[in-house]
Amino acid sequence: MYDIIIVGAGTAGLTAAIYGRRAGKSVIVYESETYGGQIINTPEIENYPGIKNVSGYKFATDLYEQVIALGTDFEYDKIVKIEGSFEEGFKLTTEFGKTCEGKTIILACGAKNRHLGLPMEEKLLGRGISYCATCDGAFFKGKNVAVNGGGNTALEDAIYLSGLCNKVYLIHRRDAFRGESALVDIVRQTANIELVLNSTVSELKGEKKLEAITVKDTVTSGERDISVDALFVAIGQVPSNEPFAGLVELDQSGYIVAGEDCKTNVKGIFAAGDGRTKTLRQLTTAASDGAIAAVACCDLILHENQ
Ligand code: NAP
Fold first, then answer.
1. Residue 121 domain-assigned?
2. What whole-number distance in Å separates Cα of residue 298 and Cα of residue 17?
3. Residue nearest atom 38 of ligand 1, based on CA coordinates
4. Which of 139, 140, 198, 249 lies in the 20 to 30 Å Cα band around 288?
């Protein structure tokens, strides 16, 4: 039986593993996709204390290697069921039918990209529709592309793509951006980024590949087509907590209800990172959650043994 089972290998989960292992606890991390979470697709990180500039890939890989070097067990498998209690021990079942037992659990599954919900969106995925500018931007070198969104991801994507593509249309549903003003300033000063504000994407055109998008003005309701080879959708995230509905309390948007102490309503189960209710979803706060949740697990195990 593991002391701590961590579900999710993003910044929160991997930081929790560091703190758990350094406290001498047996720790296993389960990840259904790749290590690193959302940060692995971020071109540049410039707001993590002590690191002036690093790529998301390097940051995530260094973190993963640190966790493995500390002797953390790691499994690429999806947790689909959690049973038991802190008093009796928890039993987790994976998609492939394997089981694992643990004294405490940290849920750190983060969030996934929100989709537009437009008819051709899934069909054109990988054929002009992308949710990751860092991963797919190079395919559209010298072309005209669009980014949809008004948060830090959309702003960073637009800046990144402006260095690769002929022209970048940045489409946002309001006329004010949610993202940092430092990024907004760069966007406004970049000659080949055209702002398309108060606008939403209402249609995706093209059969075999994306050829154009229809953009709807939210003020006038007028529509126009813009010819682009790619649309990078950066309209936020939705939490990946479906397997835990019915286990721990979720809010209306699907985030695990937990405060800054990362405690859920179930003893022995903690929530860390972007998947829990919180006001600021950042690399720093994900790392902070991981540390808090792991130390809370250690405290619980210690008090049980006293
Ligand atoms: P976000 O901050 O939630 O922004 C999502 C954007 O998409 C908002 O501008 C929102 O518009 C828009 N949007 C949401 N639903 C939409 C819809 N259905 N149709 C059209 N537009 C829609 O998401 P994010 O940019 O991915 O960032 C997520 C978190 O990661 C944030 O906390 C962000 O600060 C953080 N992050 C940080 C960095 C960094 O520090 N370097 C980099 C990337 C992300 P409204 O503004 O009108 O709501």
1. no
2. 12
3. 152
4. 249
Q: Within its chain, how far is the Cα of 89 from the centroid?
A: 29
The whole-number pLDDT of residue 27 equals 98
**Range(s) of the domain holding residue 281:** 2-113+237-305
Q: Is the CB of 200 under 6 A from ligand 1?
A: yes
- State whether 140 and 227 are in the same domain: yes
Nearest atom in ligand 1 to 116's CA: 18
Is residue 42 within 6 Å of ligand 1 at its C-beta? yes
Tens-place pLDDT, residues 120-178:
999 999 899 999 898 889 999 999 999 999 999 999 999 999 999 999 999 999 999 99
Q: pLDDT tier at 306 (50, 70, 90 boundaries)? A: low
Asked about 109 being catalytic, the answer comes back as no
Catalytic, out of 62, 135, 175, 185: 135
Question: Is 62 known to be catalytic?
Answer: no
User: Count of alpha carbons within 13 Å of 301, Cβ hemisphere only?
Assistant: 22
Task: Find the catalytic residue in 3, 136, 157, 229.
Answer: 136
CATH label of the domain that carries residue 88: 3.50.50.60
Which positions ≥6 away from 139 have C-beta within 8 Å? 230
Over 80: is that where the pLDDT of 16 sits? yes
Ligand 1 site, residue 278, Cβ cutoff 6 A? no
pLDDT in tens, 222-232: 999 999 999 99
Contact 167, 144 (CB under 8 A): yes
Whether 83 and 133 share a structural domain:
no
**165 a catalytic residue:** no
